Structure formats: C-alpha cells, structure tokens
Amino acid sequence: MSSNLILFNKPFRVLSQFSAEGDKSTLADYIDIPEFYPAGRLDFDSEGLLLLTNQGALQHIIASPDFKLPKTYWVQVEGEISDDALDKLKQGVELKDGLTKPAHAERIVEPNIWERIPAVRHRENIPTSWLSLQIREGKNRQVRRMTAAVGFPTLRLIRYAIGPYTLENTPVGQWNHITPTDSLLKEVTHFEAQRKRKTASPNRRRSGEKGPAFSHGERVAKRPARPKPTSGPRRK
C-alpha cells in the first residue's frame, strides 16, 4: 500500500539527494519513485533513518526544527563514555555556533545492527562505547561536534528514530511506505491553515502585487532523467 511518506534506511556514504554529484552514491541508487524528496538531510558519512515525502507541507513539518520532532541517534564513540560527559550532553554543550539545547543522553550496549562497509577503524588499546543521544535541533553535524566537545569523538553515527518512526524492520538499503501519525497530520493541517490565513490577510501586499502560489517544499527541481537501474536491493 502506498502513502505520501517513505522511511528509508540510508547506508554509509550515500548522499541524501537524487541528483548526481561526482561518483558518489545517491538516493537514486535505492529509490525509484517519482516526486518523492527528502524531508531533511542525513550526512554522507552518517547512516540510518531518512524520511521522504511528495507533500510540501509534510516535508516542511518534518524538516523544520520549529516543530520539534525529536531525533534519536545511536553513537559509537572513541573511549568509554563517562558519566561526566553524559551529564554535559544532557545540560547542553557550547559549540562555535552557540549552546546546544539539553539532550537526552544515556549509555547503551552495542546494538545488534548491520556491518558497516567499510568497517570502522579502531585504534589499538583504545576501547569504544555506545550511547543513545536524542536532540531537537538541526545544527550542522551537531552530534559529532557535541561528542567531540565532551572528549569522545564519534566513530559511527546512526539515526535510529525521527519522532515516532524508527528503523525497526527496515534493513539497511531498503525502504517502506509508512502512514503519517494523527499528530503529524494535525500539524500539517494547522500549518496549511496558518498559511491560508496569512495569504488572505488584507494589505499583506501592495495592490496588484502577486506572490508565490505554492507552499514550502511544493516547488522543487525535477530530477534529471536517468536510466532505470538494471539491478539493486530488493525493495518493500
């Protein structure tokens, strides 16, 4: 059954876009459905959950930090993460672009997950550990900078959840159609109603001046034409 929302488990070293960029792998190598675009991004060297949609308002709600959908990451760091470092993450960490908001941080056992290709390089005689970190912001490479700031550089970063959506039952490199939750649909309805009220407000524009007739995310560049892949991962 199709829907206007897709959940994808992005592999390591895959760009969160459909357009080609050099010889780097992109979403086009895994997803072949017209008019779906990422709602937010996930770094090239990060793995895990990425949501895509063909609805502009839904794309805006998911991607915007203003709507505060929490994002949960599984993070492998160099060294045994200390209680002091976890406390600092919970309180907020000072970065070059400002203080982060308090995060939910806890030590976890190594999760039962897929092997990364290529594998993480470990330094001899230096242990590694895992933590779960939940944030509600979207600063550039925020999780990596946060763990480095408290003395534990990130070795592997997996986004496990966005709001109520998780990687459960979605192997790496595969995707599923999913149904937006009632709360997410309510946010979309509220956002669209606000947009209509602003558009209808008197004296918003000078007489005869016309503005854009599309909502955020609805006008996006068309994907370049490309041949359909002759082979690829099995899709659900």
Keywords:
19% helix; Alpha-Beta Plaits; nine-stranded mixed sheet; disordered C terminus; 2 domains; alpha+beta; 236 residues; 4 helices; 11 strands; two-stranded antiparallel ribbon; single chain; globular
Task: Describe it.
The structure is a single chain. Residues 211-222 and 228-236 have low confidence and may be disordered. The protein has two domains: 1-68 and 163-199 and 211-236, Pseudouridine synthase I, catalytic domain, N-terminal subdomain (Alpha-Beta Plaits, 2-Layer Sandwich), CATH 3.30.70.580; 70-161, Alpha-L RNA-binding motif (Alpha-Beta Plaits), CATH 3.30.70. With 236 residues, it is an alpha+beta fold. The protein has four helices and eleven strands. Strands 1, 2, 3, 4, 7, 8, 9, 10 and 11 form a nine-stranded mixed beta sheet that branches. The chain has a two-stranded antiparallel ribbon with strand order 5-6. The protein starts with a strand and ends in a 36-residue tail after the last helix. Helices cover 19% and strands 23% of the residues. The chain has helices spanning 56-63, 83-91, 142-149, 182-200, and strands at residues 5-10, 37-38, 47-53, 71-78, 94-95, 98-99, 104-108, 128-135, 154-162, 165-166, 175-177. Keywords: Isomerase. Residues 191-236 are annotated as: Disordered. Residues 195-207 have a biased composition (Basic residues). One of its GO terms (biological process) is rRNA processing. It is an enzyme of class 5 (isomerase).
Describe the protein's topology.
Layout: E1 5-10, E2 37-38, E3 47-53, H1 56-63, E4 71-78, H2 83-91, E5 94-95, E6 98-99, E7 104-108, E8 128-135, H3 142-149, E9 154-162, E10 165-166, E11 175-177, H4 182-200
Parallel strand pairs: 3-9
Antiparallel strand pairs: 1-3, 1-11, 2-3, 4-8, 4-9, 5-6, 7-8, 9-10
